[in-house]
Specification:
By secondary structure, the chain is an all-alpha fold. It has a single domain, classed as CDP-alcohol phosphotransferase transmembrane (TM) domain (Four Helix Bundle (Hemerythrin (Met), subunit A), Up-down Bundle). It is about 70% helix and about 0% strand. It is built from nine helices and two strands. It has a two-stranded antiparallel sheet with strand order 1-2. Helix 8 crosses helix 9. About 25% of the residues are buried. The mean pLDDT is about 85.
């Protein structure tokens, strides 16, 4: 039986375990995507501060910057082949702060507080829907049985898009739409509706595969369009954001119909293959 308190000599050097490996240096390509994600988190937290201070245009700017960084961190990770489970979890936590908490608090401070507890409940619903949508997205990534066509669609409105379109009433005020007595009730219903769209089963265009391959003749037009869009966003930020939000909402029915058509075609192909297999087995 080993003694309860074995002897210990402080001058004795511990023996090196033969299987202990020396620490290896981590390539910078593994750190870069996570650094971009942390910068997005800093933007989201800055949006919270700007909201508390009542500086709503700066808060919206910080959320837009967070959305841009969120759109490129995954692409950087895939480009550098540095995707990891840690990066995916960090990205989800960051998205909840940036696109769940920050927009909900901004809307509450801006207008929903006029409806008192109902406004706070609407903000809570939106933030919780964002969390549930992100959790469902993480689970869906592990599904190996998804048809190939589903890679072009999200299930429900993604959190970054939901955050940008739920702020549409704030954009409208910034371009001159007056803030009247009916603003808060309308924004309350609109906030809950966008939150429910995030957790719905409505298929929406993902755009994740856009830009993976570009035809040579489209390179210059795409660069020119990117420059023009950036210039318009810097010169007329809220007009551009209003237009983008309205176009996204208008595209929701189109994405739903397109997904239904692809799903029906996929089911027909599966049934046709099953019928051909049964026919071949019957001949045997």
């Amino acid at each position: 039986m080993e003694p309860l308190f074995p002897p210990f000599d402080p001058d004795e050097k511990p023996a090196r375990h033969p299987r202990v490996k020396q620490l290896r240096q981590i390539p910078i390509r593994l750190i870069l995507p996570n650094l971009v994600t942390l910068l997005a988190l800093c933007a989201g937290l800055t949006a919270l501060r700007m909201t508390i201070e009542g500086r709503f245009p700066l808060a919206i700017t910080a959320i837009v910057i967070a959305a841009v960084l969120d759109g490129i961190d995954g692409r950087i990770a895939r480009l550098l082949r540095s995707t990891s489970r840690f990066g995916a979890e960090l990205d989800s936590l960051t998205d909840f702060v940036n696109f769940g908490v920050a927009p909900a608090l901004l809307l509450f401070v801006w207008a929903l507080d006029e409806t008192r507890s109902l406004g706070w409940i609407a903000a809570l619903v939106f933030a919780i829907c964002a969390a549930l949508r992100l959790a469902r997205f993480n689970v869906a990534l592990d599904n190996p049985d998804k048809p190939a066509w589903q890679a072009n669609f999200f299930v429900g409105v993604p959190a970054p898009a939901g955050a940008l379109i739920v702020l549409l009433p704030v954009y409208l005020e910034q371009i001159g739409v007056p803030h009247g007595p009916w603003t808060a009730p309308v924004v309350l219903v609109y906030t809950v509706a966008i939150g429910l769209l995030m957790v719905s089963r409505v298929p929406t265009f993902s755009g994740k595969k856009l830009g993976a391959r570009v035809a040579r003749e489209l390179v210059l037009p795409l660069l020119l369009a990117a420059v023009v869009l950036t210039a318009l966003l810097l010169s007329y930020p809220f007009e551009v954001l209003t237009g983008v939000a309205l176009l996204y909402v208008a595209a929701l029915p189109i994405g739903w119909r397109t997904a239904r058509r692809l799903s029906a075609a996929h089911e027909a192909a599966v049934l046709a293959r099953a019928g051909a297999r049964e026919a071949a087995e019957g001949r045997d």
